[in-house]
Amino acid sequence: MSEAPAQEQSQQSDLDGMLARAAAKDRMHIQRHLTNADAEPDASHAALWRRLATKLTSMAPLPVQTAGHAGVLFFVPDGKYRMQMFALEDQNDGRVAVYVPDVLQDAINKKILKPTEENDEYPIVGSPRVTLHVELLDAANTPEPATHVKNMLGWNRKALRVTLPAIGADGPRIDAAEALCMLAIKLREAATAAKAAAPAPATAKATPGKAPAEKVAEKSSTSDKSDKSAKVTSGTGGKAGSATRPQRKDAIKRRTA
What is the C-alpha separation between 32 and 12, in angstroms, rounded? Predict the structure, then answer.
């Protein structure tokens, strides 16, 4: 079996797995989208969508979610929850877009892309005269993002929109787009591992020999009660300076005599 048919068979298997995990509504949207793409005269569009979808679901394996027929959301585990990692957009306008967390500077540092002086066109390392169209999105320049993108923006989060031509994207462009996605996954895994390895914050300990404030207050209150009790006991013989009962009897006898 040649390499190309084997790759197509593996890709179809991955796509079948993605559809099997998806909810019925999401599965229907994806199948309808592929049916329309397969009906086009050039098979490149459908092939590109399948390749990107299966690549993204291999890196973000939780069940996908669709936003109509144009957008697909891809998720990774986030503790007990899930977090959107990627999005795939196909408006049937001759372009396919992949949304990735902002790893642009990391991609330049890793020699995937080169810095550019042209708007959003980044030269691909190792591919002269071939560029990748990458746009940086944030809450400021995208105040009303599409449904399949809004989870990736806001709260100081940024995303990249990587746009590929629906026909003729094979080669360096799609390889570079997939490299950006893989880089985003590796950076997230490294951050998650670092967070798990970080020591837990130390809990506050009571100072030895020093009673808590509540116990000190309780002790003070008990002491006050003891002092009051002592005063009452000492005063049962009458007020200071007053005569006792035997002394009053003697005074009466003297007056009578």
Answer: 16
Confidence of residue 210 (pLDDT cuts 50, 70, 90): low
DSSP conformational letter for 110: T
The Cα 173–Cα 131 span in angstroms is 7
186 burial via Cβ count (<10 Å: 0-12, 13-18, 19+): middle
Token duo for residue 54: 């299966």
**Alpha helices, H only, the chain:** 3-21, 24-38, 44-59, 104-109, 172-197, 213-234, 245-256
Q: Could you tell me which of 113, 137, 111, 132 has the C-alpha nearest to residue 121? A: 132
Is-contact 14 54, C-beta < 8 A?
Answer: yes
Closest CA to 137 of 116, 159, 119, 106: 159
Structure tokens given for 67: 């936003």
- pLDDT of 7: 73
Do 21 and 139 form a contact (C-beta atoms < 8 A)?
no
Single-letter code of the amino acid located at 11: Q
> pLDDT confidence of 206, banded at 50, 70, 90?
low
Picking from 98, 72, 89, the residue whose alpha carbon sits closest to that of residue 184 is 98
Cβ–Cβ < 8 Å for 190, 181: no
- How far CA 164 is from CA of 50, 59, 89, 154, 189, in Å, comes to 14, 20, 11, 25, 26
pTM of the model: 0.76
Q: Which of 90, 101, 99, 6 is nearest to 48 (CA)?
A: 90
Nearest to 40 by CA among 165, 166, 163: 166
